Amino acid sequence: MANSGVIMYKHTKGKINDNAIQALLHDPLFRKRVEKNKKGKGSYTRKKNHLSGAR
To answer: What's the predicted TM-score (pTM) here?
Structure first.
């Protein structure tokens, strides 16, 4: 029998008793992430020699 494209994920919530979907939504897999802009506001990055503690 071929794999039907289902990806297994090992959650960190222990044993799920009641609501599996709600338990997965509170898992670190679905945490908020802040993406760095590539263009526009907040996208400027300094080179290595300008970072603090480089001396």
So the answer is: 0.38
**Contact predicate 24/30, CB 8 Å:** yes
50: its two tokens: 């300008």
Within the chain, what is the greatest distance between any pair of CA atoms? 60
User: Given the structure tokens 């992430």, which residue do they identify?
Assistant: 33
Is residue 26 within 8 Å of residue 18, measured between CB atoms? no
- pLDDT tens, position by position, 24-42: 788 888 788 888 888 998 8
* Closest C-alpha to 28, from 44, 42, 9: 9
